[in-house]
Design goal:
The chain has six helices and no strands. With 154 residues, the chain is mainly alpha-helical. It has one domain. The chain starts with a helix and ends in an 11-residue tail after the last helix.
């Protein structure tokens, strides 16, 4: 098995694994995903998947496919457990994605629908998720209560 294949498989495992706590918190009522946001991410995930597949991507499709499936899963959960809807800004972003697909259809070049290279989108996704994870960890550390010493009666 090649290094690229191993990285593709590892990326899928990370994408699926990092979703587990989020889905758990949604089902427990601790997190309420925003429907409009997950609609945008799902739309973009599907567009990127189709674009990269049409452009001849191989193992990078594993990550993009896992992203598309997991974002659609959260979108479906948001319909029952989420909040909000699609604002004008949300609809504008979906329209922008539609323009990219239209550009792809007109030019017959899938790259028009997405980023300039096959690695730009997965890199952006990984950096974005890493930043969010760092913020969550930082916030959790800042809200932990300090231990309180209780004097022993004696």
């Amino acid at each position: 098995m090649t290094l690229v294949a191993l990285l593709g498989i590892a990326a899928v495992l990370v994408a699926v694994t990092d979703l587990v706590p989020y889905v758990r918190d949604i089902l427990r009522g601790l997190t309420q995903p925003h429907r409009g946001t997950w609609l945008i991410w799902s739309t973009l995930g599907v567009v990127v998947l189709g674009s990269q597949a049409a452009d001849g991507a191989t193992w990078s499709l594993a990550l993009v496919g896992a992203q598309a499936v997991t974002t659609i899963l959260v979108l479906v959960l948001s319909l029952r457990f989420g909040v909000g809807g699609a604002s004008r800004a949300d609809l504008s972003l979906i329209g922008l994605a539609a323009l990219g697909v239209g550009g792809w259809a007109i030019s017959s070049r899938p790259v028009v629908a997405t980023d300039a290279s096959l690695l730009l989108y997965p890199s952006h996704y990984a950096l974005g998720n890493g930043a969010i994870a760092a913020l969550i960890l930082r916030r959790r550390r800042s809200i932990r209560p300090e231990p309180v010493e209780i004097p022993l009666a004696g």
